[in-house]
DNA sequence: GCCGCACTACTCGGATATTTGTTGTCCGAGTCTCTTCGG
DNA sequence: CCGAAGAGACTCGGACAACAAATATCCGAGTAGTGCGGC
């Protein structure tokens, strides 16, 4: 019952990308440097978002990732499911099949009341997450921390022309 | 984001124990045989419920487990937290601490809006599970499958005198 | 000066190790029951 | 016949091993920019 670290990274990355100019991609290396994260692993997580249709990727110089659709069309649930997989966290293994009186041809995930209870709770959880969008979170942050957006954009795209790492 | 198998086993076991006569313990071996589960591993899960104060254990012959309090005082959430641990599934690792402009002495689990969103969704999930009790599920099953309780009790405690035939 | 071409640098993407957590197994400490022996 | 002591068997409890998944890393395929040579 432990959610992968990639969810947190992916959500922050999506919010940041909702601030960068549309059409300009942000490389995973730059995002990773922003948060001091392992670059290759963050890249792996963003790949999952691409497979889910949340991000679009561009190869080569000036390449990277960008949102595949408008931020208000990306829910938090979309991101969570892209990283963690679409399966329910509670998996009913059909424990009743092997119990006395159990039948093989019954879908206990539907009839078992315990399974129903867990599923119902999970539906409320998902509904809650599906109500929140990347755009909503971004505007809330802008309202609460007015400097965050500008500072983030400056750090992510403003450093575009820094090809001189030879500062020694 | 995958819940342990022990949660399902523990919930079924608790419902079954709510049907057995109070004062009589049910051994993990018997419960495991009922569901065709690995006995030692089920025992391990029930130990976690004992540590959480949900079950009480009795050693020796005629020993086993029994509910430590009334079934209507045991919520589904209690069982889930006992098995999976009390921590939130979404762990905010304070990603913003290492970001530009981040401060070490800020509790980002509180201020970070992404963390707040995830936490809020999880609270609704927990609230939903805390509303359901073992007794509630048990009575629902009794209403829906009138034979279940009797069959379960017969299988779990009725086979008590199997080594010594004291059949009436 | 302008165009075309090869070269380089940079990116994603997937294949590959390493660490952590879940699943499963085993044996020991404790205790209740049954048997047996003495009163 | 009755009671108590001892052997036996059954239980939980935690320590140990096997397996799967999350975490972290590395290298190859492809592409856009760049510099150079020719026109």
Description:
2 copies of one chain form a homodimer. By secondary structure, chain A is mainly alpha-helical. Chain A has a domain of 110 residues: Arc Repressor Mutant, subunit A. Helix content of chain A is 52%, strand content 5%. Chain A contains 8 helices and 2 strands. In chain A, strands 1-2 form a two-stranded antiparallel sheet. The radius of gyration of chain A is 21 Å and the shape is elongated. Chain A starts with a helix and ends in a 12-residue tail after the last helix. At the A-B interface, α1, α4, α6, α7 and α8 of A face α1, α4, α6, α7 and α8 of B. The structure holds a DNA duplex (39 and 39 nucleotides).
